[in-house]
Amino acid sequence: MKIVLIFILKRIMFWIILSFLIFILTAILLAVGGTKVYGFNYPNGQIKYRGYLKRCRDLVGLEKKYHENGNIKSKIRWKKNEMKSALFFYENGNLKTSIAYKNGEIDAGILNFYENGNLKSKMLYKNGVPEKFFKIYDKNKEVEEKVEKVELFYPNGNIESRSYFIVNKNVETVYQDGPDEKYYENGNLKSRVVFINGKVNGLMESYYENGNLESRIPFEDDEPLGIAEAYHENGNLKSKYYIDRLHIEYICCWCEDGKENKMLNLYNEKIKEIKEMYRKF
């Protein structure tokens, strides 16, 4: 019995040491590549967010967000600040929604699941635009719902807004699903966001009238959550910051000429230090 216990303890120590070495190696590789991990917690100390920024600018790797009970809320794969895939989960840990992206647009479609794991619906996409929608009511029956495109125009004939709605006449329901785009009168894109089951999910993007990106804010179920970014009107990056329903915390800021805003960054660091000091009391 004693020999068995010694063997078990050795195995446990082996895996603890191995896990520690993997953690250290990963940290070294990230540091060499200029990549830093950013983490934020709930007020109770439970982990809420973990993400990776390369050289303080580009989101890379696997970004994870958590429910307050500790279960995973979402997993988002990034490459050079471009979203590649997104998985959203219920509080019980089961998959809620699966989305694939290509060149910043939704590719192939969106799969939605019931909380028990059964398929609920699937929206087919082509070139970032909803094509067909199928809602699953049970294991054997597949019902097609109609996708309605709604467009508004300026007096000069240019598009003002474009959105998509799911219409189910059988149960008399209508809800927004798919991309929602608004335009300036000159034809340039003003804002873009994606609705899933009537709620904002993914990146909410705003643009200046000259066509340059103004801001990108990640949303999940109508609430901001994750690392967002703002831009100067000339196209240069202005700031990277973490945002959720409760607070905003700046990560790094830049001047209009593209240089680091050292004064503002120093101020933000001091604010963080003060917050940490108060948390300890």
Automatic annotation (TrEMBL):
Record-annotated membrane-spanning stretches: 12-33
Pfam families, A to Z: MORN_2
Domain of life: Bacteria
Annotated InterPro entries: MORN_2
Keyword list, A-Z: Membrane, Transmembrane, Transmembrane helix
Protein known as: Toxin-antitoxin system YwqK family antitoxin
Organism listed in the record: Fusobacterium pseudoperiodonticum
